[in-house]
Hints:
Layout: E1 5-16, E2 19-30, E3 34-38, H1 45-52, E4 60-65, E5 68-69, H2 74-78, E6 81-84, H3 96-106, H4 113-122, H5 138-149, E7 156-160, H6 168-183, E8 187-191, H7 195-201, E9 204-209, E10 212-217, H8 219-229, H9 241-256
Parallel strand pairs: 3-8, 3-9, 6-7, 7-8
Antiparallel strand pairs: 1-2, 1-4, 4-5, 9-10
Helix pairs in contact: 3-5, 8-9
Amino acid sequence: MSEDAIIVTKGLKKAFGKHQVLKDVSFEVQKGQVFSLLGANGSGKTTIVRILATLARFDDGVITICGVDLAKNPGAIRGFISLTGQYAAVDEMLTGLENMRLIAKLRHLRNCDDRINDLLHLFGLSEAKKKLVKTYSGGMRRKIDIAMSLLGDPRIIFLDEPTTGLDPQSRLSLWKTIEELKASGTTIFLTTQYLEEAERLSDKVAVLNNGTIVSSGTPHELKTALKEIEKQAYQKELPTLEDVFLSIINKKENDSE
């Protein structure tokens, strides 16, 4: 285990009834990096996020987050992390400011109005903070959702497909925010269906298929490895991360036939 590893997962297993979703999942996430977990729909990405965020139990394996054993002390881990799911978890009948203050109270944070205003400014929501969230656009709802998750300055933020459904402008804005969070030292655990997103943001990528991690590395390492394997197809340029993903998934499917 690396000294800088902030998340370590070994031999993670999870079944729903007779269906084994996670068979043997092992990976490490380094402090301050953007780690992207890729996989097809139904591959178990959200299940892993829910387990790491202490929202779901696992059947076997060992998970440590910030040096704490998740199985033994999930309460301590909740103080280190924050989760933004696939859908914005905001109260539409409250204003943006009221949503922020509600989360502050739930997290037992005091005297944090300055922090709230700083986050609203960071996400470009200062002018809309007193408007009801039901009047917000999809991009604004996603921004307030992430702003809420940053209260308390978590060490790790789980972003489960955060840009799904966003327009291109909102997606680019969120990418910039993720890059700024990384620059501040925050560790980002990202799941995404957009390979371009993973390629731009990630320090490390892991591909989940058939219940296991079938490939991992930096985007450049994965692309270089594919070019070495398929030299004829990529003589003049590197493949994209999408090329890598499709090659891995298709190969595994062919091998299983």
